[in-house]
Design brief:
There is one protein chain. The chain is of the alpha+beta class. The chain has one domain. A three-stranded mixed β-sheet has the order 1-2-3. The longest helix has 11 residues.
């Protein structure tokens, strides 16, 4: 199991997320998996890397 996965955060970003996952040879997930430490979130606005161990403030 990879320590990082690619996840689209909007339906409109699925194609872009799929392309990025293939290019980086990373698994693509469509649902949150608390077992993954890092998530590369793909949206139509851009990319974000999240460390699931860190508390997200203000959300």
């Amino acid at each position: 199991m990879s320590n990082i996965v690619v996840q689209p955060v909007q339906n409109q970003a699925i194609i872009r997320a799929t392309e990025i996952a293939e290019r980086l040879d990373l698994p693509l997930v469509t649902q949150s998996d608390p077992g993954q430490q890092f998530v590369l979130e793909v949206s139509v606005e851009g990319l974000a890397i999240r460390d699931r161990r860190q508390v997200r403030i203000g959300e």
